[in-house]
Amino acid sequence: MHHQTLCKAAAVAARRMRSIVGAVLLGRDGGMPDAAHVVKLLNTVNTGDTVKIGGISRRLKTSRNPELVPVGHVPYSVPQTVARHLQWILQKDLLGQDVFLIGAPGPLRRSVAMQYLELTGREVEYVALSRDTTETDLKQRREIRSGTAFYVDQCAVRAATEGRVLVLEGLEKVERNVLPVLNNLLENREMQLEDGRFLMSPVRYDKLLRDHHTKDELDSRKIVRVSEDFRVFALGLPVPKYKGNPLDPPLRSRFQARDVSRLPFEEQAELLSAAGPDVAAEKVSRLLSLASTLCSQESSALGLPDFPVDQLPSALRVLNVFPTLSSQQLVQRLYPYQSMLGKEGRAAVEGVLGRFQLLDGHRQPAPIAVVGVVPSADNEGHADVTLRLADDDEGVTFQVPAGTKEPRPPNSSSSPTFVGTASHARLLAEMMQSHMVGDVCLIGARGCGKSAVAREFAEMLGYSAELVMLYQDMTARDLLQQRYTLPNGDTAWRASPLVSAAREGKLLVLDGIHRVDLGTLAVLSRLLHDRELSLYDGSRLLRWDRYQTLKEQLRLSDRQLQERSIFPVHPSFRVLALAEPPLVGAGGSGASGQQWLNPELLTMFFYHSVTPLAKAEEISLIQGLIPNVPPQSVQQLLLLSHSLRDASDPTGQSLASSLSTRQLLRICRRLSAYPEESVAHAVNKACLSRFLPSLARASLQKSLADCSIRDTADPGERDHSCTVKDGVLTIGSVSAPIFNPNETMKVPDVLFYDNAQHIAVMEDMLKDFLLGEHLLLIGNQGVGKNKVVDRFLHLLNRPREYLQLHRDTTVQALTLQPSVRDGVIVYEDSPLVKAVKLGHILVIDEADKAPTNVTCILKTLVESGEMILADGRRIVSDPLEAQRSPNIITMHPDFRMMVLANRPGFPFLGNDFFGALGDIFSCHAVDNPKPQSELAMLKQYGPDVPDTTLQKLVAAFGELRSMADEGTITYPYSTREVVNIVKHLQRFPDEGLANVVRNVFDFESYNKDTREVLIEALHKHGIPFGAEEKNKGWRKIIGWEEDGRPVQITIERDGGQDVTSPKHGKIDPQNEPHVGGNQWAGGTGGRDTAGLGGKGGPYRLDAGHTVHQISQAEKDAVPDEIRKAAREMAEKAFKERLKEIDMSEYDAATYGRFSKAVRRQVASLRSILDSLQARGTERRWLKNQAVGELDDAKIIDGLAGERAVYKRRGEAEDLPEEPGGGPQQRPKRLRLLVDVSGSMYRFNGLDGRLERSMEAVCLLMEALRRYEHTVRYDIVGHSGDGYDIPLVGADRAPEDDKARLKVLQTMRAHAQFCRSGDHTLEGTRASVRALAREEEEGEEGERFVVVLSDANLERYGVRPERLARALTSEPQVSAFVIFIGSLGDQAERLRRALPAGRSFVAMDTEQIPQILQQIFTSAMLSDA
User: Fold this and answer.
1) With left for phi above 0 and alpha for psi between -120 and 50, is residue 212 left, alpha or beta?
2) What is the tens place of the pLDDT at every residue in 651-710?
3) Helix crossing, 679-687 with 631-645: angle to 10°?
4) pTM of the predicted protein model
5) How far is CA 1185 from the centre of its chain?
6) Interatomic CA distance for residues 1249 and 1255, integer angstroms
7) Distance, CA of 284 to CA of 321 (rounded, Å)
8) Phi and psi of 1066, rounded to 5°?
């Protein structure tokens, strides 16, 4: 369908192509000369004081600040379409009207505006608007000089008073209610300023002068004349079509609009022919036809982003030098459809490529390698690069920008951290081609080598690389300029590393453009397109040639121009961006994993994909960097990692991300140092398999087994000792010298009882520590992560700095803490900076609580030893670098990080620190001690506690932890809870065990289902928690005294709150919440009436309010006669309800049998959904507020007297729509495909398979009741009658028990009366395909299919591999099958034959809900 739609658009483009090819060829072969062509296109007469465009002319005025007039924007030949735009703008200018140039992303609108301003000699004030733009950036900003705050006019005020043109670009990106500050200035040319002045329109001002008011009188009243030459040019994108905020109607009505769309086909073809004069006209036309097709309305209707037509001239320059370059590869650099589009989108694009004969990627290979890089003899700041295009080719030599250092020859042995491979050589060669004409962006998964390739690229060209780590909350100020205070308290602006790189000709490496908000990143578009930039302090950066032209025209020196705040952008300056692949099918911007690659960003870079290395290349890389690694271990690792990378299911690909090239190198370094370790241990450690969801863990173990990787058995006699002797620490088999610190006060000293498991963890940690790794410890709460780290550092005698993170942690808080002393901003070093300086160990606790977009800045510190601080200082690891700048902090060689985080996933639901940054650390799973280790440790905490009691506790808590892993309960009980129980028993030995364990389990007092599970488990191990007091044999252990009376404190009072008689209560028409009392029905925590959480009422009644629960003791005190009356009333109401829904008591009992069987699983799954909802509605920071908490980033603005310097937490509805489209909370999509075939009914008496299937359906309907906005589901059956039998519609979830029972009865009846036969395979294919289609249409978030079937597939000729293909046919849909019936070992054989983690066998009634819960939990948490 997509292909057919695009073909129509392609046909139109093809007709255009044929009609102009002849004309283009005629122009090349001696047609109309260029000069005449210019006259034909644009009749412009510039006599020095008049400009004439078409028939419209304007007299020019002499500029008072000629350095503010744009130069170098008007081309020698102006296209006719642009000439018409210029003529229209001239008309509006003569009318005194403001204009709005609207159009597609790209530099064309800005170019048209600048061409007009250059032609008319107008001074310009340019502002790139972003989501960070505030009123002060437009009107007036306060600055401090000599202790006095005063106002400085900003762009809008300067333009109005000086008669300049204010160019506002990106109106759709600025937050609402900011631009209306300009409304009166636009409409009436009036504005009240903060410093008391009033801007007045020239007509009104001149009238006052004519009415006998003097200028001095007007000046005394602070009335300022707005120039009659003041104009506003706004540049924006149309919203909708593109993401952003729509224009405020009052603002929009003040502009005259002009659609500055892309140039017509013929004019584009002429421009491209000029850019690539040696490229065949036919190829030029085909490329342009492709671009036109992908910018058509048909293409937009399919959800395809616009093709970056404005990048085609640069692409043609590449093609001109490399005529054999594949057109398809060139298109992929401009429009990386393989990375950003789904299956249907890729097919549609390749269909258009084929139509225009551009599918030549296989016929024309890419360049092989860079064979030479030497400084250019005739062009300073450039290098001559030679590429070899074939094995027998001498190469092609061309010039590219280069750095100031000596280029390093390719394949040089002087780089100890880079081993070249064929794919890297090819990538570097392709990057050189793109570098010749523009900026480059590398797209690749985490750990694939992007940073290493970037470093190699910079060194080959002699560049000094300026690394800037981007993060989500980064503002435009962070990118360009930051405010600071001078020693005397004056405010000033400090250029960012980005600006320094532009001026000094460095290679700017922007690491993580997928993280930063696109509304912020847009401020760089002018720098990337035009090499120009306007800064907050009024400074301007101009492209090198334009700067030289301005310098010659005005006859000014560099110093004079710099005094006017004009600086050149170095001609060697280039940008190299690094990004992770966009999430195909996702909306939004700026968040990792979202679809960040939008049409606007496509116009900024040439894109290159960094694909994972081939197996042979990766082996060569590993052995080149780590020559001593055991070869067999390398082979096993690579076999495993590549099998996971090639997996089609998301689980395998997710596991593969934990075995990136970076992580494989870390594993091999350790195996090289400790060859006795097993590969399986290293893989489980890297993947953190202990805390993987059960499905992913099973998949990993199956993959390990398939690759013949087996863990070596624990020898049993392993040394678990820890000794310090002669200044050497020995943990197990590993030794290290004790450190001799200058500061011993910060060496931790903690109470720690050695146990074998923690000693083993510390031995593992010491191995990595000696290899120079930074460590990440992950585990449940209370397992001893902090104690292990403190003990580890204590043994090594290493001082530490401690940093605890939380949800409000910011990038600034991680590095510096600003404060004000005597009116001067002073930055206090954070523990991180102190640790870097002094060589201490930085312990970062609760790392998962901080947003990953904040903690991601640790990446550069770990990888390259670099970090830029808010006060302008820079951390570097190279001591030689410190000698070149006074603002350098050299990283101490002893500095190391140890990061602590809770395990990812439920029930913690923190941020996935491991998923975001796990592969830059050496990871260690810290689990609860094994029974023997835990028992030995508890004996040290409670030496007087009986061993039998300790054994009961260890056994009971061990079982509870197993139940948490299986999903039976949600809370993972830890060693911390057991230790606290033992401490209590040690101090108060006469208190019964059951009373003491209540300290832990009373949290579950109000969760009946969980409490029942706990009571059963504890009773099993002899702990009578929750036992009745009448059981005399357990009185003492429970904690009751010998006489049977409990110790209690009683306060007697007559509160008049006793129950009287049960009643329904009044109906509140407003449905207001009522707590306590006995008047209203649906109240909570009250008495007598129907409600929730109270006592003495006849039955439960949920009115949808928060429940206030009274204690169980208070409920137990209700008299028997009241209870009896309430029960009778409840029975009566129940019968009336059954009658109301036409449901008999038998029906109710039947449904109750099913719902009761899955009650606990329903409660557990609902608790997971509640947690996800709570996290999804977590509030975020609103910045630039007039009230709230002081924003550290705005302290200087606050000193200067600004008002909007606060931030506050905002609910979702308070948040403005993010320009560029923020990530949306979309419901997850589930389809349950159930087997209702005749065999289900036939063999139900044998193994209960139909009953199990019905229970599974009941679980789903009950658990998802009232959660339809979180999970949108439908239920479809398959049998001999067909594969798509509707049971529950996607938008028609059953509303009551009767409707749910009807679904179950329909299942049974269909299985009883349907024809024989099986459609499991067809139903699976259809369901997976249906959900994939919904994904293409942009509906919902993650989607998955669960198939319930018996294993009777062989009878119908269904092979396991065919079912496997059906389950994995659509990568964006997670599909699973549960076999619930089997004759013999059918089901088990099928499970083994299907992909790991995709199939289950449930022959026990209770297993079905647990398996479903595992699937739901794993799928729901995978993107939480």
Assistant:
1) left
2) 777 788 888 888 899 999 999 999 988 999 999 998 888 888 777 788 888 889 888 888
3) 40
4) 0.77
5) 25
6) 10
7) 14
8) -75, 150
